[in-house]
């Protein structure tokens, strides 16, 4: 996200006595105003992002105290050498006049960070001031990923609804709820959230991978169900196709495999394979016309 230059949105500002007191709780020694550079960032918000996911306002409230004391790094590279800043204060800013795509009032999590002025970070401070380093994203973890269409917790199971698609005119997105931890904020080139950015926790990435595997499993299962119905109708013409399909939809993978083997055997007995070519076992009689060409 970009560092806002307005007073409300954030940006570089002189450290107040209260700021220095809060910074002092994180530093190992008291720091003076001339020793620190302070700035504010829009960490994340409750708008639906490029991944069709969003934090709820409640999740922002839960994340706010968790980000205090967290480091500012680069590109989410967790290295002590890459630590450039630290968050010393946060607050949730509400803009009720602006409505999100989800239909509620817009809100965002504002973080206040500080750096100790040194020769090594002089260029970074200049880049922040010049608007070069402005987009950030956050690393955090949440408990639940709730589908907007059916309310299923996709962190636990897959409902089959695809993020970004519409179902009966309703856009599918995921609501990130129940903040567990905040890790860091990073300066990045392209954040996931248009206004800020978010790096999903390992749990969300794992859920995404499981979602892909589940989709593949459902496709294979549907194919097996269709095969069972086809073989059943071949084995017994009196069976109802609709009844078999209804039955197949209720069976487990193991039960479907067992039925497939059974019906395949019955269908094979009813329609045994035959060779396409047949051969005469006796010499065919030669007519007189063709006999003339034999030597």
Query: What general outline do the C-alpha atoms trace?
Result: elongated
Instruction: Name the poorly predicted regions.
Output: 1-10, 190-205
Share of helix among residues? Answer: 25-40%
Query: What is the count of DSSP helices, taking H or I runs of 4+ residues?
Result: 7
Structural class: alpha/beta
Number of domains: 2
Question: What would a concise description of this structure say?
Answer:
The chain has 295 residues and is α/β, with parallel strands linked by helices. 32% of the residues lie in helices and 26% in strands. The chain starts with 16 loop residues before the first helix and ends with a helix.
Provide key terms for this protein.
single chain; alpha/beta; 7 helices; 10 strands; about 30% helix
Structure characterization notes:
The chain is of the alpha/beta class. It has 2 domains: 17-200, no CATH class; 212-270. It contains 7 helices and 10 strands. The chain has helices at 17-24, 57-67, 122-129, 202-235, 241-250, 253-270, 288-291; strands at residues 36-45, 53-55, 71-74, 85-99, 105-116, 136-147, 166-167, 170-171, 174-187, 198-199. The strands form 2 sheets. Strands 1, 2, 3, 4, 5, 6, 9 and 10 form an 8-stranded mixed β-sheet that branches. It has a two-stranded antiparallel ribbon with strand order 7-8. The longest helix is centred in the last third of the chain and has 34 residues, at 202-235. It is elongated, with a radius of gyration of 33 Å. Mean pLDDT is 78; it is low at 1-10 and 190-205.
Please give the structural blueprint.
Blueprint: H1 17-24, E1 36-45, E2 53-55, H2 57-67, E3 71-74, E4 85-99, E5 105-116, H3 122-129, E6 136-147, E7 166-167, E8 170-171, E9 174-187, E10 198-199, H4 202-235, H5 241-250, H6 253-270, H7 288-291
Parallel strand pairs: 2-9, 3-9, 6-10
Antiparallel strand pairs: 1-5, 3-4, 4-5, 6-9, 7-8
